[in-house]
Amino acid sequence: MILLKMEQEIIDFISYESNHYKEFLQMSSYQRMLVHRVAACFGMDHNVDHTGKSVIINKTSNMRMTDISLGKKLIEEE
Fold this sequence. Notes:
Elements: H1 2-16, E1 21-24, H2 29-41, E2 45-48, E3 55-58, H3 70-77
Antiparallel strand pairs: 1-3, 2-3
Helix pairs in contact: 1-2
């Protein structure tokens, strides 16, 4: 699922990357919406680039790991 992949990319970005920003390139409007929402759950800044097709997320001082992953939440609801 694309949502779980995005969540994992953001977790990896928070945990392992020294960069302060990450760009999710050329996405559909639905995919961009998902990135915005997942980034907000992690307390990150999130904006579209100048083309309006990519989302850039930024680490912040309010950034946090979520208590439960989306994958675990989906399994619990089944």
